[in-house]
Design a protein that fits this description.
single chain; about 290 residues; mainly beta; five-stranded mixed β-sheet; four-stranded antiparallel β-sheet; 25 strands
Length: about 290
């Protein structure tokens, strides 16, 4: 077994499992992180062979024996040297020693998460962070680290959208940068933000003239589950009533097209009364003047 049969990168970075080889290993065979230091593994498949570990290519201090050697805590790239030793009585020693290099990966910077007001609505929040040098992916958690998922912008994306919120609901997020190996990570501080409180808005003017602009009166509010809307003319006569639970993509409910008995009503001041049932079950009453203009 004079020639190398296991290359320098075989098992590099491995954390579990077994592999069996008989022969000469490359310099960085089976180096992996273990506890406070690095653990280097050889092979004792050849009967009568053990291993000595040194801190120098020749001479030096014997710092370990056997097929496994765990370094003390190290802060930078460090070389160790291993030699085969016969245990059959011949005391033959393999030469030269094989160099094993333990490389410390640079720590990743901590992600900084921000939210700008434009990224907050009554039912969604977008969290953003800047790119981290050396990171190959990002993960996010909104349950304090219990589970981690890819951001909505993708594994290498720099933002995450949390949607489907209720008004004023709070969301806290952790962002984790991941390096070239799974254990090389850096996690942000927890950042919390609330969705906007919902504001029920009913315009007091609209223009039902069939020009395609502001022809229908729309009541807005993400918290609205359903709305009962009544309209009265100048003499107190009820001319319109509708109950709607159909909300459009902008949070709006169409409540009046300006017609009574199929006819567009004249320019003037009307009055409305609205009974609004919100998604949390509470009921809100609103009323006020309503202007038809052209």
């Amino acid at each position: 077994h004079k020639n190398t049969i296991v290359g320098n990168t075989v098992l590099y970075g491995a954390t579990t499992g077994e592999a069996f080889f008989s022969g000469v290993a490359g310099e960085r065979f089976a180096v992996r992180l273990s506890g406070a230091g690095w653990e280097a593994r050889g092979s004792e498949l050849v009967a009568g062979i053990t291993y000595n570990w040194y801190d120098a290519a020749t001479g030096g201090t014997l710092i370990g024996t056997g097929s496994t050697f765990t370094t003390p805590g190290i802060s930078g790239t460090t070389n160790y040297y291993v030699e085969q030793v016969s245990t059959t009585g011949s005391n033959c020693v393999g030469s030269p020693r094989t160099q094993v290099t333990a490389t410390i990966l640079a720590p990743l910077a901590t992600p900084v998460v921000t939210v700008v007001p434009a990224d907050i609505t009554a039912n969604s929040i977008t969290f953003r962070w800047t790119a981290i040098a050396g990171a190959t992916a990002y993960q996010v958690s909104i349950d304090n680290g219990a589970t981690w998922i890819a951001p909505s912008s993708g594994n290498t994306g720099l933002f995450h959208l949390v949607s489907g919120l209720t008004p004023s609901q709070q969301v806290c997020i952790l962002v984790r940068a991941v390096g070239t190996i799974a254990c090389q990570t850096s996690t942000s501080a927890s950042v919390c933000e609330r969705a906007k409180p919902d504001v029920i808005f009913i315009p007091n003017t609209f223009t039902p003239n069939n020009d395609g602009k502001n022809d229908v009166l729309v009541a807005y509010g993400w918290a609205i589950q359903s709305i009962q809307f009544l309209v009265f003319n100048q003499w107190g006569e009820k001319i319109h009533e509708i109950t709607s639970n159909t909300q459009d993509a902008n949070g709006g409910f169409m409540v009046w097209d300006g017609k009574y008995q199929g006819k567009i009503q004249p320019v003037g001041v009307y009055a409305y009364v609205a009974k609004i049932t919100q998604k949390d079950g509470t009921v809100v009453q609103k009323s006020g003047p309503l202007n038809i203009v052209r």
